[in-house]
């Protein structure tokens, strides 16, 4: 009996020891597992909050999102329809006739109203006297027999070098003055008058057709001054003959003034003339047996090439433009 109690007591003691060992092993594994977790797993707030508890969050839409999407689609469709309509609709930009004329640089709007009321303006071949008349960019507007455009007028003074012709384009692909002023204006410019290929000096380029006509028409007698270098000395007798006038094919070529240049040899003269005949200065001296070696225009309509290097250009000042319009 005593032996059975002893054996039972021993088995009970051994069972308690095994439970303690098992409990210790379990706690030890839990602790080591926690340690590994601390070292190998991200414990940022987003994990602690459970964002990754069941994998990546599933996308979802609120109940009203479907309706909002439909509204966006309808709105996009309407905008596309409007855009397509605008694209397909022909452009029709109009401007008041008096503003059109004023923008061309001819006069102010008030003065343009007077010109319109007097019947001096034509649109597409018809005289217009209606105040507030609207014109399109494609319409042809004519004043005083000259077509005008509503572009901002630009006035460029060029000191022309040799080897350039005074036209907007050349069939022989020779260099033109337009090559030298390509960056002077966004608008198309035209030379006022001409200088032959070997003549240098002042030439004006502009998109102001009305002023161009005024400066080139013979009735305005626009004065020009040239520096002439001859192949030999000019005699006093021939100097006087030129002052009296030289007979050419077009008629009697009269100069306004001619003289020797102070401090220069006698083969260099200055000549002022208003005649616009082709190569008139060269032909005057050729008639008397001289060849012009160099011809430089130093002044045109009151404009000079001062401070403008050969081949360079500048924009006219407002004062210079006003002076041209008052000539």
Automatic annotation (TrEMBL):
Its EC number is 5.4.99.-. One of its GO terms (molecular function) is rRNA pseudouridine synthase activity. Keywords: Isomerase, RNA-binding. Residues 1-68 are annotated as: Disordered. Residues 1-54 have a biased composition (Basic and acidic residues). Gene3D superfamilies: Alpha-L RNA-binding motif, Pseudouridine synthase I, catalytic domain, N-terminal subdomain, RNA-binding S4 domain. It is an enzyme of class 5 (isomerase). Residues 95-162 form the RNA-binding S4 domain. It comes from the Bacteria. It holds the Pfam family PseudoU_synth_2. The keyword Isomerase applies. InterPro entries: PsdUridine_s_RsuA/RluB/E/F_cat, PsdUridine_synth_cat_dom_sf, PsdUridine_synth_RsuA/RluA, PsdUridine_synth_RsuA/RluB/E/F, PsdUridine_synth_RsuA/RluB_CS, RsuA_PseudoU_synthase, S4_RNA-bd, S4_RNA-bd_sf. Belongs to the pseudouridine synthase RsuA family. PANTHER family: PSEUDOURIDINE SYNTHASE FAMILY PROTEIN-RELATED, RNA-BINDING S4 DOMAIN-CONTAINING PROTEIN. This is Pseudouridine synthase.
């Amino acid at each position: 009996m005593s032996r059975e109690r002893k054996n039972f007591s021993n088995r009970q003691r051994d069972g308690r020891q095994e439970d303690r060992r098992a409990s210790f092993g379990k706690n030890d594994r839990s602790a080591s597992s926690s340690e590994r977790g601390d070292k190998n797993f991200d414990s940022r707030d987003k994990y602690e909050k459970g964002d990754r508890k069941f994998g990546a969050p599933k996308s979802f839409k609120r109940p009203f999102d479907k309706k909002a999407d439909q509204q966006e689609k309808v709105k996009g469709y309407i905008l596309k329809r409007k855009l397509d309509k605008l694209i397909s609709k022909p452009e029709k930009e109009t401007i008041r006739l008096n503003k059109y004329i004023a923008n061309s640089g001819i006069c102010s709007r008030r003065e343009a109203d007077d010109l319109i009321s007097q019947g001096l303006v034509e649109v597409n071949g018809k005289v217009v006297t209606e105040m507030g008349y609207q014109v399109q960019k494609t319409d042809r507007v004519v004043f005083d027999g000259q077509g005008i455009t509503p572009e901002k007028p630009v006035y460029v003074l060029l000191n022309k070098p040799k080897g350039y012709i005074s036209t907007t384009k050349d069939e022989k692909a020779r260099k033109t003055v337009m090559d030298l002023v390509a960056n002077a204006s966004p608008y198309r410019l035209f030379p006022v008058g001409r200088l032959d290929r070997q003549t240098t000096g002042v030439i004006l380029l502009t998109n102001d057709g009305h002023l161009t006509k005024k400066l080139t028409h013979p009735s305005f007698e626009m004065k020009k001054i040239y520096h002439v270098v001859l192949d030999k000395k000019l005699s006093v007798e021939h100097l006087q003959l030129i002052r009296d006038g030289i007979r050419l094919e077009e008629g009697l070529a009269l100069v306004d003034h001619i003289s020797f240049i102070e401090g220069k040899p006698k083969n260099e003269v200055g000549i002022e003339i208003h005649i616009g005949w082709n190569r008139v200065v060269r032909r005057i001296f050729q008639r008397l047996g001289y060849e012009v070696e160099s011809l430089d225009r130093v002044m045109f309509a009151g404009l000079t090439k001062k401070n403008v290097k050969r081949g360079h250009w500048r924009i006219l000042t407002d004062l210079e433009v006003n002076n041209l319009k008052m000539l």
